[in-house]
Amino acid sequence: MKNLPLLFCGIFFALAFSFVGLVLTSHIQLGSLTRTTETLVPSDDDPSIMVVSEGDPLYPPKSVGLAQQGKQEYISLGCMYCHSQQIRRADFGADIDRGWGPRQTVARDYIMQDRVLLGTMRTGPDLAHLGGRYAGDAGRDWNHLHLYNPQIVSKGSTMPPFAFLYETRKIDREVSTDALVFPPESRYGPEEGYEIIPTRRAVALVEYLLSLKINYSLPEAIIPE
Ligand code: HEC
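Above: the input record for the complex with heme C. Below: its predicted structure, written as tokens.
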């Protein structure tokens, strides 16, 4: 080994080069992003500087409570291997034409997330704006049926069923209020006298899905009229 110093120099430069390229430049470009309001206003002191207008809600919102627990389920169940959470620009693919979201996602959309689940593959649709596409009680019911068995609402789907997140129970006098309501004559419904109840994991997961929304403008990514 007569070229040991050269070898170390080589290793040092390879590491330093990738550190600068991957960590430092991204940090310089994106590290200072903060939450903002939908519209910026000129500052009182210096009108050439745009600042956050007081009192407006800050975006991106922070996900809390049940939705935050649901995110852990989303991670542990591996939903990310088939679903992305990033909407591409209108001139860069058909995401917006498909109705996956009203605008492209930008780096700032992710700054409040402890783990960013951009995804790597799109076996299924993008979910970045799922909560905007399936809203309210109807959206909740649809998602529970779909998770229990995608075939119920999406015939021919290749998504696996997650029926283990649901409990089959004998009906005790009356059907429970949170029991899944199957479409009439669905062959996936429970036997006579039984009902399907979401477990806490399923409830949290669906709340997380419904909380995924890109329904606000950012100064660098405005929802077109
Ligand atoms: C093997 C790949 C695969 C995995 C794993 C998977 N999905 Fe899917 N998913 C799909 C496919 C394909 C579709 C489109 C067909 C359909 O609607 O079922 C889909 C559709 C969806 C939809 C409806 C989207 C829409 O725009 O209508 C939701 C919501 C969803 N998946 C959530 C999940 C969640 C939550 C998990 C994890 C528990 C998961 N998926 C895991 C493949 C997958």
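Notes for the reader.
The mean pLDDT is 94.
The CA atoms of residues 13 and 19 lie 10 Å apart.
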